[in-house]
Amino acid sequence: MSASWLPPVPTSALRGVVAIGNFDGVHRGHACLLSKLKQLAKQLDAPAVAVTFDPSPAKLLAPASAPTALTTIPRRVELLKAAGADHVVVLKTCPELLRLEAQAFFEQLLVSGLRARGLIEGPNFRFGESRRGDVELLKQLCSASGIKFEVVEPELIDDEWISSTRIRQTIDSGDLAFANRLLTNPYRISGIVSSGAQRGRTIGFPTANLEKIPVQVPAVGVYAARVVGLEKANKDDSSTESQNVRDHIIGRPVALHIGPNPTFGEDARKVEAHVLDFSGDLYDHILELELLQHIRTVTKFESLDALIKQLNQDVAQVDLIVKQGSKT
């Protein structure tokens, strides 16, 4: 009888070299681990298999304090494969999975489920109920099961480990340039475009108001960004008009405003994207943005003219940042 938390595993993913983790964000430390995974898989003539969780175990164990994700599962799978995984197995996090003792987790997932030939993990890897299993236990279990086991030391930047927690703190401070140094790809957010106050249109800076953003939103501020994705929120709608809009908007620079609009006396925190040189209808689309750099704080301006002057400066700066980024 198969476990409810283990999805069907294709034959091509069996007898592989495995790495298990949340892999949230897929940062440079993860990329180093995936590189070692790929190397060992090549040595053993086996597939490289990354295993992750949906949702993070913390969402079930401590929902009130669980951090917001840095990546959606589809994006995480995409990034893990780009970093070297041949297959990504997404475990369905549930009470049954979280109640497994460390040895039972090892046997059900690695021995029976994946028939693993190799395992790669970091030194702080924990597994099983209450995270009782550690790397020393993993080493013993692998030895007893004939599974080759290697530990990969963490990557450092500025003498500190690269971790998802560190990246969350960096994004929360608004330092997207540094966060992107820690990640393998620039940070992305996406949201459904909904109707807002539409005040931007009246002053020549129309914005797309983003809602239902599934990942961590950076600190209040104005950011340089770029459009990397657009699709209808209704997946069944694949009209030619939507495709034409997508072809026209992908790659365009974006001045992204996160926070209130104090100039107009608004306190609500909003996420508003001004797509440069674009004024089409984006309502009911999911707009995906790649965030590049924080450019200024949110400020209350003394007049509408002062605001418009600053917005023109923002647009020029964003355009330059995105163009420079596309050349690197």
What does this structure look like?
This protein has eleven helices and 13 strands. With 328 residues, it is an alpha/beta fold. The protein folds into two domains: 11-157, Rossmann fold (3-Layer(aba) Sandwich), CATH 3.40.50; 186-327, Beta Barrel (Elongation Factor Tu (Ef-tu), domain 3). Helix 6 links the parallel strand 4 (118-121) and strand 5 (148-151).
Describe how the helices and strands are arranged.
Blueprint: E1 17-20, H1 28-43, E2 48-54, H2 57-61, H3 73-82, E3 87-92, H4 95-98, H5 102-113, E4 118-121, H6 135-145, E5 148-151, E6 156-157, E7 160-161, H7 164-172, H8 176-182, E8 188-194, H9 199-202, E9 208-211, E10 221-232, H10 240-249, E11 253-261, E12 266-275, E13 285-296, H11 304-327
Parallel strand pairs: 1-2, 1-4, 2-3, 4-5
Antiparallel strand pairs: 6-7, 8-9, 8-13, 9-12, 10-11, 10-13, 11-12
Structural key phrases:
11 helices; Rossmann fold; 2 domains; Elongation Factor Tu (Ef-tu), domain 3; alpha/beta; 13 strands; 328 residues
In terms of structural class, how would the helical and strand content be classed?
alpha/beta
Order of helices and strands: EHEHHEHHEHEEEHHEHEEHEEEH
Measured on Cα atoms, how large is the radius of gyration? 22 Å
Q: Strand arrangement, largest sheet?
A: 8-9-12-11-10-13
- pLDDT below 50 for ≥5 consecutive residues: which ranges? none
Number of domains: 2
